[in-house]
Amino acid sequence: MKQLLFIFTAVTLSLSAVAQETKKPAKSRKEQKRDKVNALARQEEEGNVAYKKHFLFGAKLTSDGYGVFFEKGKAKSVKKATLFQLEITERKHTKEEKETYYATQTTPFIYGKLNFFYPIKLGVQQQFLLGNKSNKNGVSVTANVGGGLTLGLLRPYELQITDTTGQRRYIKYDSPDSLLFVNSYLDQTVSGPGFGTGWNGLKFTPGLYLKPALRFDYGSYNEMVNAIEVGVCAEFYSKKIPQMLYNKQKQFFFSAYFAIMFGKRKGR
User: Fold this and answer.
1) Can you tell me whether residue 227 is helix, strand or coil?
2) Eight-class DSSP state of 93
3) Contact call for residues 52 and 40 (beta carbons, < 8 A)
4) How many CB atoms are located within 10 Å of the residue 53 CB?
5) For residue 99, how many other CB atoms are within 10 A of its CB?
6) pLDDT by residue (tens digit) across 165-202?
7) Bridge partners, 207 (sequence order)
8) What are φ and ψ of residue 165, in 5° steps?
9) Where are the beta strands (DSSP E) in 45-114?
């Protein structure tokens, strides 16, 4: 009986030792992520696209304004993708300068400004992979080239004036009020427009645009998109855009921009 008990104990201890030796420690989240990245990298080396779609939102600063945009991307291959984009910006004129009525504290206004100018762009870009360092430092570099349609929204710039009797009204640069619009600061209290003014007088000017850019994607094998982009944009409209009084009106606009973007990738 003692011999059987000894044999049973020895076998149990041996099996326990073997189990401890063969049991692998659980991988950390960092190791799991690294293994996933390596697997996706190998997949793309074999010509298979890791993520076939992405959706992102972004904000941009331009040399003459600012804007926001939405993008939907679809990969054609490891090195090529098609980007569908919708963008709205506000373009400022280089001569814009805010002033405040000297007699009282009022909302600042821009003397001679005729219209707010909001270009809305709908276009397509082709994306080409230039370099991919995702396994080393998490950055891929792409060149994006394309363009599309742009629609220039012109919102009249309306000044709020208060005459000597205390009566307030909004005026814009049109036939009835053009003289008063130019000289209102002489004997009136002048205040800048609020965001809610001018929308009932919107005008539209169509055009075309071209936009080349470089994009730096931090972690292209991650599901979340974190990227920055630098580029230029050229726009041509069907007629001249009136932005400022006493300044030459233009049909062609050229600007540089810097953008940040966040989004998500999908395998299918």
Assistant:
1) strand
2) P
3) no
4) 15
5) 13
6) 777 888 888 867 777 777 765 566 777 888 888 899 99
7) 150, 237
8) -90, -5
9) 53-62, 65-75, 80-91, 98-99, 109-110
With vertex at residue 85, the alpha carbon angle to CA 83 and CA 90, rounded to the nearest 5 degrees, is 145
Strands ordered across the beta sheet of 168-171: 168-171, 159-162, 189-191
Structure tokens at 245: 């009084």
**207, 196 Cβ separation under 8 angstroms:** no
d(CA 203, CA 238): 13
DSSP annotation string for 141-180: EEEEEEEEEEEEEEEE--EEEE-TTS-EEEE-SSTTTHHH
d(C-alpha 133, C-alpha 131), whole Å: 7
Two tokens at 221?
Answer: 């094998």
CB atoms within 10 A of CB 165: 5
Residue 220: both structure tokens together: 């292209």
Structural domains in the chain, CATH included, are 28-266 (2.40.160.20)
Helices (H) and strands (E) in the chain, counts: 3, 13
CA pair distance 42, 232, nearest whole angstrom: 34
The beta-strand segments (E) located in 157-244 are 159-162, 168-171, 189-191, 203-218, 224-241
- Four-CA torsion 185, 191, 195, 199, nearest 10 degrees: -40
The Cα 92–Cα 7 span in angstroms is 89
52-101 pLDDT, tens per residue? 899 999 999 999 999 999 999 998 888 899 999 999 999 999 999 888 76
